[in-house]
Amino acid sequence: MIYYDNDKFNNNYIEFDTGKGSSNKKPLVSENSEEDDDENQTEEIKNIKQMGVPGMPSQPPKEIQCITIIGEIEGHFIGNPQKKATKYEHIIPMLYSVEENPEIKGILIILNTVGGDVEAGLAMAELINSVSKKVVTLVLGGSHSIGVPLATAGDYSFIAPTATMIVHPIRTNGLVIGVNETFEYFKKMQDRITQFITRTSNIGKDELVKLMHSKDELVSDVGSVLIGKEAVECGLIDEVGGLKESISKLKGLIREEENNKKNNEKKDNMD
């Protein structure tokens, strides 16, 4: 017979009457049941809850660091909490850490961004372009607006066959003071972006300006939509490809860099 005694129940025990004048006490509930449940959860269950799959791939080799820039690029002001965003205060320290890590030889930048803060996007692009590691960029889905210089910032760039890039002049929202100084500031900002893109890609300035001011492709706006191969043909992107091609190219650049260093060391020793 099983019965509950208030004192025993409060102590989280059930008493089992064996019918032989003795009883066995067994714990009803663990004193730290919630903590025990969390500890006893397998890694597989955690992965299912968080990622929807029973197991995650093992960590990639530390030779290559993958950095994703997705959604809206958030700058000095907090963006809409309902939108996916990449914060530049996260990317900049990450790039610094990669630069200081001797084990990492290359960086793969995966882009699917609608653009965003111009200053923040251009700052990230300049930092990507200035690191000593080999950098390959891959445009998936889209890399619009300030995402264009981010896509051209690496040593080599790829774009998926169905990915898009929207090239247009900079714009702003909110209160604008309609004086000549404001328009001069916009002009200087646009010149900074144009110079960076032409410096880090194969497109000419005249061709880029023409794409930016096209009136045939965007409704109530100026600019151009480039899909996959079109971005390669105009010189913005180096090659059409996906993840396989991007990683293969990055590994090739790393090996080439290592061979060049070895050859230079041999020459120095011979001298």
Automatic annotation (TrEMBL):
Q: Keyword annotations for this protein?
A: Hydrolase, Protease
One protein family per Pfam? CLP_protease
Q: What domain of life does the native source organism fall in?
A: Bacteria
Renumbered to this chain, region (Disordered) spans 17-43
Residue stretches in coiled coil: none
Where is composition skewed (Acidic residues) in this entry?
32-42
Q: Which GO terms describe its biological process?
A: proteolysis
One GO term in the molecular function aspect is: ATP-dependent peptidase activity
Alphabetical list of InterPro entries matching this protein: ClpP (IPR001907), ClpP/crotonase-like_dom_sf (IPR029045), ClpP/TepA (IPR023562)
The UniProt entry's sequence similarity note says: Belongs to the peptidase S14 family.
This protein is called Clp protease
Q: What is the scientific name of the source organism?
A: Romboutsia maritimum
